[in-house]
Structure prediction request, 285 residues.
Amino acid sequence: MIEKYTNYIKDLPVMPEVATKVLSIAEDGLDISFKDLENIIKLDPGLTAKILKIANSALYARQREIKNLQMAITLLGFKNIKSLILLVTASNLFSKMKKTTFHKKFWRHSIMTAFLSKNITIRCRKNEYAEEAFLGGLLHDIGQAVFFNYDRERYLEILEKEKANIEPLEKLEVDAFNVDHRDVGAAVLAKWNFPEVFVDIAKEHDRLNITSSHKSVIITVTVGGLLSEKLGFGIFADDKKELYSKILPYSCLKQEDIEYFETSFVGELQKDPLFRDCKNLFGIA
Prediction:
């Protein structure tokens, strides 16, 4: 799979060693002690500092300040710590594009999709995959960043054509690169040894015919991404509008939920300390 996209991924940043090690740990974390996890994370002092800063946001805050990794791991648990590590790691990827307009638009859409996807799972009482939905939403369009990294001018032309409703984005990408951002994104996440669920989200989001065993979370991220675009965080082209109306019945959202996300969610999210931390982390505040 990866060999097919060598041209596009040969100049990609290397996944940091700490993130790679944490990704290799089983989801339940039963085969590793909190002390082992602490020893892995503290190999990267910069990552440690950022994790502690975000962990002390009001979203995670407890009665006392989280002063060290051991306390953070004990209070937050493995899944939340893993999410924070990948969040910080993602913010450092593709550093060459940080001063571009594309960077801001890309991460604004990705971060909003992450928060929408997580909140959809909570609203639907499917908290067991809330963190997967958050990270899946954050990384679902990573293939777009790969294309921009490979050929900026050509990819910006593609986005302008999508905005003008000339063709769906994926069709424009295939015409230009012989592959779309979903397949490239899946190949990249597989190369970085991300768990299967994130590879599948990248590969099958924005599709109605989903073959993955992670179908529920893929539908959630698709709805989150489309809602993000509908709310102005991305390009809500005509084909996306059609997909949005077709996929909503497959989600667990009721009409009152949809109205909440379309009218009230963004305003309430501005008060979320973790959301503010994310905007600062990705330089889009």
Notes: The domain at 95-285 is CATH 1.10.3210.10 (Hypothetical protein af1432).
